[in-house]
Write a structure and sequence with these properties.
The structure is a homodimer of 489-residue chains. With 489 residues, chain A is of the alpha/beta class. Chain A folds into two domains: 360 residues, 3-Layer(bba) Sandwich (FAD/NAD(P)-binding domain); 128 residues, Succinate dehydrogenase/fumarate reductase flavoprotein, catalytic domain (Flavocytochrome C3, Chain A, domain 1). In chain A, 29% of the residues lie in helices and 19% in strands. In chain A, helix 1 runs parallel beside helix 14. In chain A, 61% of the residues are buried. At the A-B interface, helix 7, strand 12 and helix 13 of A face helix 7, strand 12 and helix 13 of B.
Chain lengths: 489, 489
């Protein structure tokens, strides 16, 4: 077992020498950290970022780059989509889980247009082009896409569908070297640098340092094996990412993710959450997860997905993250895609983002009865599901799950099945409880003086469900807030 | 909002006077507390219990009284059931969730027969009679019953079915005044009193007190508005119950339980977890829940339970707690019981534990098609489910879910449906991470000196699934361990 770091706070009185200091000290140079740095510097603070790796970027620079924005952004308007903050709020409240933070969602929805403009002002570019096919990401450099199932059942009856996945314009998508996440981070980092933000790389935080009143006044860190004490004259902003790679925290809070971390970097070991809990911080949404599903959305939409009992359980034309979540949490990770030859061909002819999903089917048969037998599903279960689906699909309807007519076509022969059991991976969404200014709240509900946080070390706008772009979205949005609040404290 | 107590630890150096002291101080006089007290006293310690209410009992005295024991207890043997520790372990590992504590389950299964004898030696009586019908609790004073779905699919193919719900012999079951939980607590409390265990009632703990080395040496408490400091010469045992009634903790960790606490007492506000976390304690299984389902098990077994899509999802003859869990967590709390007149009559003729479930059906119809329409289920969905069920039930089989042949009978007419949406309630199973001696572990995985815990303020043998009796079981088992370890430290 890896030795686990002791995170009990240190006392300022025990610090013999401060090795560095700044008005605002930020731990982590990913999306939340860079946004905090920009706003803190603009508010007049001297800013120092401590980054544990050798470079900026965090998980953000490796991400697809979706930023979940709406309420009528210039990009939405230019591409002909109507949206309002209230409509965005209605979708989010329906989609993000049983423990939604209403105040945060309202705040985020109403601040979203301004946040879009802020990103553009910092140099982030969004190409004025919409991509409307099912998928995880746009295949080229398109700037807008559905990324949360807004246009699928049941959400398309709850709020007016509007795409909100805003993607910074990519370059060399195929090689991945300048993907959306990179193209989001790069101009923000340049903006921070121009503002004189300082950075210490290879520096990882160990514990917070309190003065005698209990205020957070610094942080202990390690660099090249040396311990150092860093003083924060105004405040510390924690922006160190999720606990996806802390096996014990995952086991304790979101055990279905054990052994299947995704879309996060190994540095996401929960350190920001741990150091803050050690000074009394409250956490929230600790059970919530984002869950990816490794199936080709074009194929999923044209086939049917069934569980281990041969039953359909989610409309196949929705955001694949919802399919992943339903599969892992509600279906014991049991999923099979059933698709006939024609639909499989049709899916393969579409432009998709990656050849990753081009696996051969696990089973192929001339009839559903034969397929069912080969798959070992309960007798007649799949036959019944397909016959029900086909009968209604022929009439352009899906009374069970509300799939859109464009993807409804009776399943013919020959027919194939893809074994997609265990095809899920994800990351936890829970973390420190913060107020709308990014102040870390104690279990007494009062802010902990001197301590701020943003990004996936905090509980954000998604507390159970997910939409792609929500993490880069709330991390950048509340990163700004936290940086500004720390600078002005 | 209720004001939330500050739980940051105090320092021994700041205590001007200790108002009370003992070798071992135990917080909470429920099942874990009384067992800790007995073993600590027997190991030679002077023991003081701090209880926040005016009397002993905790949630245990109000409980049905199941103690989950097996591996070949004298009661199991006398009633003709074969069981071994390995068989018990196999069942528990299959049944209790994705994050099972293997070491604890092995330890508990292998120590179970000894623990039965210990309870009997303390005066707990188990009547040598078995109750074999589906149900939540035995209707009279029977001593043994299935309480976790051991004899239902899929567990009856994974381990040899053995009933392990041991119920202390009740008196006056109908009035509830001497139910199983009371008859468990009473002799244990008498045992503790004979051993000279002292109790301070109306005394609630506020925070732990540490010496300069970080060892827990006492606890601050409040009684009648006065703060008091209580010194523990050898150790503190936290036995304060779950966080079922701490709304913020439920929201942060197990949000599906928001607004539906059950089988716990209002004192279960998570205080033991909170004071320990404030000194660096680690938690585990925080997302895990027990979920009750308010349907008559005799009716459930004889009907079919379908979700909001008209699909069956769990065998109806299993432990109703499993039905509750599957309904709340996997089916968005959507459940309907479909049962025909004959089977309804048959269920009502059986002896059941309570008339609680004798509600009238929500819908009654002459045909399933008509019923489906009245219920508003997707077109043909219920008809298809019933026709599939009936076809196989007529042949004595349930290929979909494996219900036992004795409960399989085609659904006829007239047919009724009970709307059981939202018929769930439960309590969280997560809490402090402890070792096999009840020592509270820090996030560094090392024990926190002087601090012990047991009962539902700890993560026990159930970390995702549940069996009735598991809480009184591991609370009493590890309460003993914690008390002894504290006394001998």
């Amino acid at each position: 077992m890896v030795d686990v770091q002791d995170v009990a706070p240190g006392r300022a009185a025990d610090v013999s020498e401060w090795n560095a200091e700044a008005d605002v000290v930020i731990a982590g140079y990913g999306i939340a950290g860079v946004c905090a740095a920009i706003e803190a510097a603009r508010a007049g603070a001297d800013v120092l970022i401590l980054e544990r790796t050798g470079g900026w970027g965090g998980a953000a620079a490796l991400a697809g780059g979706f930023v979940y924005l709406g309420g009528g952004t210039p990009l939405q308007q230019a591409l002909g989509f109507d949206d309002t903050p209230e409509n965005m709020e209605a979708f989010l409240l329906a989609a993000v889980g049983p423990n939604a933070d209403h105040a945060k969602i309202a705040d985020y929805s109403h601040g979203s247009v301004e946040h879009y403009r802020w990103l553009v002002d910092c140099g982030v570019q969004f190409k004025q082009e919409f991509w409307g096919e099912p998928g995880w990401e746009p295949p080229h450099d398109e700037g807008l896409m559905y990324s949360g199932g807004e246009n699928a059942a049941p959400f398309n009856t709850i709020a007016t569908p509007a795409p909100r996945g805003h993607v910074p314009q990519m370059q060399n998508k195929r090689t991945g070297e300048k993907g959306g996440g990179y193209m989001l981070m790069k101009p923000l980092v340049e903006t921070a640098e121009k503002l004189g933000v300082r950075v210490e790389y290879d520096t990882r935080i160990q514990r917070l340092i309190l003065d005698d009143t209990g205020r957070v006044v610094g942080v202990a860190a390690r660099r090249y094996g040396e311990e150092m004490a860093v003083r924060a004259r105004r405040g510390i902003v924690l922006a160190t990412g999720s606990f996806a790679y802390n096996e014990e925290m995952v086991a304790a809070h979101a055990p279905r993710l054990i052994g299947r971390p995704a879309a996060a970097i190994e540095e996401h070991d929960g350190i920001g959450i741990r150091v803050a809990q050690a000074v009394g911080a409250q956490v929230d949404a600790m059970d919530a997860t984002e869950v990816a599903f490794f199936g080709d959305p074009q194929m999923l939409a044209r086939g049917i997905v069934v569980n281990g009992r041969g039953q359909r359980y989610i409309t196949e034309d929705t955001y694949p993250g919802r399919i992943g979540q339903a599969t892992l949490i509600e279906q014991d990770n049991q999923a099979f895609l059933i698709i006939d030859d024609d639909s499989n061909e049709a899916a393969r002819k579409t432009v998709t983002s990656t050849p990753f999903f081009r696996a051969q089917p696990t089973w192929v048969a001339e009839s559903v009865a034969e397929l069912e037998g080969e798959m070992g599903l309960p007798e007649s279960s799949l036959q019944q599901t397909v016959s029900y689906y086909n009968e209604h699909a022929a009439a352009g309807a899906d009374p069970l799950l509300g799939k859109k007519p464009e993807f409804l076509k009776p399943i013919g022969s020959p027919v194939a099945a893809f074994d997609m059991r265990g095809f899920t991976a994800g990351f936890p969404l829970g973390g420190l409880r913060t107020d709308l200014d990014g102040r870390v709240l104690a279990s007494t509900r009062k802010p902990i003086h001197g301590l701020y946080a943003a990004g996936r070390c905090t509980a954000g706008i998604c507390t159970g469900g997910y939409a792609s772009g929500a993490s880069l979205g709330d991390s950048s949005f509340y990163g700004r807030r936290a940086g500004r609040a720390a600078a002005l404290s």
